[in-house]
Design brief:
The complex is a heterodimer of chains A (192) and B (366). Chain A contains eleven helices and no strands. With 192 residues, chain A is mainly α. Chain A has two domains: 3-105, Orthogonal Bundle (Rna Polymerase Sigma Factor, Chain: A); 119-191, Arc Repressor Mutant, subunit A, CATH 1.10.10.10. The longest helix of chain A is centred in the N-terminal third of the chain and has 22 residues, at 29-50. With 366 residues, chain B is α+β, with helices and mostly antiparallel strands. Chain B folds into three domains: 3-54, no CATH class; 100-288, Jelly Rolls, CATH 2.60.120; 294-365, Phage tail protein beta-alpha-beta fold, CATH 3.55.50.30. Chain B is built from ten helices and 20 strands. Chain B has helices at 8-12, 15-22, 26-38, 43-54, 65-83, 118-132, 137-149, 285-288, 303-314, 339-350; strands at 111-113, 153-159, 165-168, 174-177, 181-186, 194-199, 201-205, 214-218, 221-225, 229-233, 239-245, 248-252, 259-263, 267-272, 277-282, 295-301, 317-320, 330-335, 352-357, 360-365. In chain B, strands 1-2-5-6-8-9-12-13 form an eight-stranded mixed β-sheet, covered by helices on one side. In chain B, strand 10 and strand 11 (239-245) form a beta hairpin. In chain B, helix 6 (118-132) packs antiparallel against helix 7 (137-149). In chain B, 33% of the residues are buried. Classes of the chains: A mainly alpha (192), B alpha+beta (366). At the A-B interface, helix 3, helix 4, helix 5, helix 8 and helix 9 of A face helix 1, helix 2, helix 4 and helix 5 of B.
Chain lengths: 192, 366
Amino acid sequence: MSDSNLEINFRKSGETDNELWKKFKSGDIKSYEVIYRSNVQHMFNYGMSIVHNEGLVKDCIQELFLELWKSRRNLSSTGSIKYYLLKALRWKINHSKVRDKRMVAMDQEPQIFRKHISFPFEDELIRSQHVASRKLKVEHALDKLTSRQKEVITLIFYEGLTYEEVASIMSISIGSVYTLAWKAITQIKRLV
Amino acid sequence: MNYASYTAEDLVLNPEFRAWVINPTMDSNEFWENWLRQYPEKIQEVKKAKKILKSFPLEYNHLKDEVVDDLWKAIESAARKDQSKEVGNHTYLLNSETIISRFENQRYNRKISFRTKSRKIAAGIILVIGATLGYTILSLQNQEERISEKEVVMITKENPRGQKSTIYLHDGSKITLNANSKLTFPEQFSHSARVVHLEGEAFFEVAEDSNSPFQVNTGNVTTTALGTSFNINTKNNRIHVALVTGKVYVSNNAGMQESNLLLNPGEDAFYNEAINELVKGQFDNKEVLAWKNKIIVFKRAGEDYVMGVLEDWYDVDITTTNKSSLTWDYSGEFKKMTLHDVLVSMGFTMKFDFEINDQQVTITYH
């Protein structure tokens, strides 16, 4: 969604992920910044779907970027930086959750206070009021989705990843990705 | 794709369908029109799928612009700080010219006996053998029983800064342990596997025993060998395994993913904890084994790094009285040299004078 704007602002036209990554690996701090700026919103959004804790997700993003910098010479090459970073972030967050048991508890709290709500099809929604009220009902239902279902939905619908990429990020089979997403959609379907 | 059995869910999960609903084009209009002509009974499912997509309520979490900027400032300043103390390669090796001769002094630090953990250890051993040698489950269960009945006494050998040691295990394996490193192993190896734990850096020359793999645990990474020699370095929050002779398996046992690498001589495995990734590569024998051969190697090293190495190596504390006007980007090799001679040579390039008082070293830049 915000992908295209950000990338236009920061990235040199025509530069592939591979080239950008290579420059970053050679220590180019400008490329490092481009990578950060064009991915941070995606990472934050995805991170929040794994654990609804803004502070923790921000910490993990910061820590991850720093570790990437420190070990940049030894990183393998990648054709998709976003995919690479989302995968790394997932590992990092799950790792911190294990380290900090409090986070597990927070993760399970119902998400009552939503700070930044926006919808993928916002214009349409504003046009039709009754959609909005239906949306509220559905939203409650979605709070009951398992965290893995939320994760899958975020990656597919908001980050636009393929089933193969989602499967690889979450270390599960493509079939499981599809099943998780399918069950989540079924829950929404009941309410619309 | 079997469209005949398509439900609203399947449509929602179909990327082309989503693209059509969100952003219809001439092509996609044509495609879905044809599709409905072919499957007219699906009209209800299509309507429902569209409704689901339009009421999709998951939030998109955005960071505010100023938060994005602040976060970047924090990352950038930490990265720049780090840059000043880096060197050019991931294996940094050094060695003290002190003290292989002092290996008699290595201390039997701790004796831990833990009956409760023995079962876990046994289970770990079983996993490894199961993976690498394919033992039968039956014989392993017997093995587990036997081990858990016994008390496992663990021995820890730890080298302080400036001291390196050689450890001979009773199975005939020889381990050279670098300064500021720690090795833990059982007093008696079990019959099925030889398991040790390493923090820091060591060079292993493993005695051959095809019935009992030799396993080195380092955090999330396990290195399994039969008879072979290899170097492992876990300093600087990285894990690096470099194989000199024979064959080893290096496995990553963190997280849900498990990955294994089989190394041949000249190949190395590098574990990056930031992304939980194990990568295979090549290494420079001379550089990796420099510490064992009592050579200090710096490759484009920063000031903090160089001073840290010298402190570890010679067991001294180094302080500087003023700032260097030069940017540290230091490369050099020192073989069997005293601290005095190293500092003379380095001070010439980097323009400093120094004073050594016992274990205190003071550096003054010109």
